[in-house]
Every structure is written in structure tokens, then in C-alpha cells.
Specification:
Length: 389
């Protein structure tokens, strides 16, 4: 009895006394290697958020600890996440560019009492793997569904789809096929290519030979997307085959290297660096300063910036205590004005509801290329969650 009473008293005292702490956030992403620019955008978004909002929440100081994972490597992601939790004592895990890396770390969360804020990985099912996953990026179901309607409404009836053969590619293929066939179109062939593919000429030949009027494509942004769009142009497909894709294929940081080859390509996506709003202006200024070269800015920066917003809200709600369930509960239904537009963390799925924009690559007066927003699909949830269950 006495022991119990003392324990209760100690707990009450600890809870009641404010104490300034350092709260560590572990961020896993590709900070070197071929996808290094994508990780650099995570860091730019995080730096921008902390530059604009400070590095403290209440009495607590926020410290970010980065771990580099150059390419999709689930075993390494699990090892790094475990090390962050056990050795570094992080209270939050965040980042995760590639789906397999996010998936591999989800089994750790409940036991470790740590929420995961996914800042990029885009396969619908990730949020179903643990109640402690919250996502501030997008899913390929969410970004690829509207382009199917755009393709059909624009007069294209036969499409060949080409996707990277892993989670977000398989989801993108299903999203496009579902939307396009519901509208009345036909996917005449569906090709899945290994993630490591870097010679796209044989694929371009298959697209030509398929008799399709258009191609739908998804590959993860990076050297992959640059190579694919370059090959599409260099193999002469731009003349004659219509191009449909989510915005990963025309990320802003690829546009200088693509040049006129990208002009006119239409994509649907949650974020364009050119988005016209006060929030985005503030964000782009801070993120450009953080990254150094503004031409390197791309969508992982906004996923990370909004991810930090969610983490700050979680820290606020828990008063800095390590309580993953309470932290996640506090952001269910949270709405705010993101640089991308109005967003909400859907209370049921813990995935972000957001506008998806139709954009076209255009050239500005100063000769730079940008994604010009031309149509808005408002408040899109994730249609893939039904498929993921
Ligand atoms: C993913 O692996 O989930 C992923 C990576 C890059 C993208 C989209 C999705 O551009």
C-alpha cells in the first residue's frame, strides 16, 4: 500500500513540475547518392519551418538528428530507426522518402512509444501498418486519380501505363486504370519496370509499338524521372504520344536539365513551387535560403515543412512528454493552411486531405521552367485506402 502511494505521489509530482528538455526528432532519408537532392529538400523544409517558428515548443528545445539512407533499403531503414530510438532516444521518427523504408520501420513504433510522420513515402497502405503513422505528403492514388479523368476528357481513349515495380508504382497503375476505365477509356498494356532501371529506350520502343494514344507513367522522383522524361523526348515520343503522369515526373528540380523537352507536359500533383499564395511565398523564401540554390527546391520540402508543423502540434499537445497515442490523437482532424493550399489530417486514416492541381510545364519570362497550375481538384482524400485494406 505504502509503496503504491509513494509511486502515485512521485508520478503526480513529475507530471506537475515543468521541466525544460531537449526533444529529439530522428529524420531518415536519402541525404547522399543519386537521390541526395530529395533528402536535401527534406532538410530545407525542416530548416525553413524552424527558421520561421523557432526551435522551441513550450519549454522544450527541438533537435533534429539525421540518418542517411541513399536508396530504398528496408533492412537499413529498420536498423537506423532502431538506433535512433534506442541509442539517441528520439521521441519522433520522421522523413522516409521511399515506401519500403517507411514500411520497415512501422513495427517499431508501438513498442517504442514513438509516432512516425511520413514526409514523402506514398503507398496508401503505409498508414494502415501502425496507428502511430501520420502522413503529410501524398499518395500516388491521390495524385494519379485526377489525371485519368484529365486524359479521358481530353480525348485520349487508349493508354499504356508504365510504372516502377514497387508500392507507389503498383498503386499509381491501379489508380489510373480505375479512373480511366470508369470514364470509358482502356489501358491497353501495363508495364512494370525494376526500380533500378536506367536505360529507358527499350520501354520507349514498347510504348511506340503498343498502338496507345497516350502513356501514363509513375517513377519515384530523382535520376529515374529525369531519365524517363529525357528518353521520352529523345526517342521522339513527344510527337504523337500524349503524356500523363503525377507531378513526380516533372519535379521543379528536374526542369532545368530537361529544358524545352518538358514544355507542355501535363501532370497532377499536390504541390507546385509556383503555387500562388502568401503562405507559399513565405515558405519558398525560407526554403530557398535553407537549400542555397532555389532551382533545387522540390516537393519533399513541403512534405517536411508540414511534417514539422504536425510534430510541433504533437509536442504542444503532450507538453513534451513521450506519449505517442496522445500525440497522434491530438493531430487527428487538424487543419491548417499549408504552402500547397488548405489541408487536413483525416481523423480516420491519419493521411493528409488536400487539393490536387492539374499543371503544365511552362517557361517564365526569365527563361526558367515551372509547373503552371491550371485546374484544382479540391479536398482530395486518399482513394487508395479502400484498396489497401
Ligand atoms: C515512394 O517510394 O513511396 C515514393 C518515392 C518517390 C516519389 C513518390 C513515392 O516521388
Amino acid at each position: 500500500m505504502k509503496k503504491l502511494a509513494i509511486a502515485a505521489l512521485a508520478a503526480a509530482l513529475m507530471g506537475g513540475v515543468a521541466h525544460a528538455d531537449t526533444i529529439k526528432v530522428g529524420v531518415v532519408g536519402p541525404f547522399s547518392g543519386p537521390f541526395g537532392l530529395q533528402g536535401k529538400n527534406f532538410k530545407a523544409g525542416i530548416d525553413a519551418y524552424m527558421a520561421l517558428n523557432g526551435n522551441t515548443v513550450g519549454d522544450d528545445t527541438i533537435e533534429i538528428i539525421y540518418r542517411d539512407i541513399p536508396t530504398a533499403d528496408p533492412a537499413q531503414s529498420k536498423a537506423l530507426s532502431q538506433e535512433l530510438v534506442v541509442k539517441e532516444g528520439v521521441q519522433y521518427l520522421a522523413g522516409f522518402y521511399f515506401t519500403p523504408d517507411a514500411m520497415a520501420a512501422t513495427p517499431l513504433l508501438e513498442q517504442a512509444n514513438v509516432p512516425m510522420v511520413v514526409m514523402n513515402a506514398a503507398t496508401s497502405a503505409i498508414v494502415t501498418k501502425s496507428p502511430y503513422v501520420v502522413r503529410t505528403s501524398f499518395t500516388t492514388w491521390q495524385t494519379s486519380t485526377p489525371i485519368a479523368k484529365v486524359a479521358f476528357d481530353g480525348g485520349t481513349k487508349k493508354v499504356i501505363s508504365v510504372v516502377s515495380d514497387y508500392g507507389p508504382g503498383v498503386d499509381a497503375e491501379a489508380a489510373f486504370k480505375t479512373g480511366f476505365e470508369a470514364a470509358g477509356g482502356q489501358v491497353v498494356e501495363a508495364i512494370r519496370i525494376p526500380l533500378q532501371t536506367n536505360d529507358f529506350s527499350p520501354i520507349m520502343q514498347r510504348i511506340k509499338d503498343s498502338g496507345a494514344e497516350g502513356v501514363f507513367a509513375f517513377l519515384p522522383s530523382g535520376p529515374t524521372t529525369l531519365g524517363f522524361v529525357k528518353a521520352f523526348n529523345e526517342n521522339g515520343l513527344k510527337e504523337g504520344i500524349k503524356f500523363f503522369a503525377p507531378g513526380d515526373l516533372t519535379q521543379e528540380s528536374d526542369l532545368p536539365a530537361l529544358g524545352d523537352a518538358a514544355l507542355g507536359l501535363t501532370t497532377t500533383f499536390h504541390y507546385a513551387v509556383s503555387h500562388d499564395s502568401a503562405e507559399n511565398k513565405t515558405f519558398v523564401e525560407a526554403a530557398a535560403k535553407a537549400i542555397g540554390n532555389p532551382a533545387e527546391l522540390s516537393f519533399p520540402a513541403v512534405g517536411a515543412y508540414d511534417g514539422m508543423h504536425v510534430i510541433y502540434k504533437m509536442i504542444e499537445a503532450t507538453g513534451g512528454d513521450q506519449d505517442a497515442a496522445k500525440a497522434v490523437e491530438a493531430v487527428k482532424g487538424l487543419s491548417w493552411e499549408s504552402p500547397r493550399g488548405p489541408v487536413t489530417i483525416d481523423a480516420e486514416s491519419r493521411h493528409i486531405t488536400q487539393n490536387i492541381y492539374l499543371r503544365e510545364v511552362a517557361k517564365a519570362d526569365d527563361g526558367t521552367y515551372f509547373n503552371k497550375e491550371i485546374q484544382t481538384f479540391e479536398k482530395q482524400g486518399d482513394p487508395g485506402l479502400k484498396a489497401a485494406k
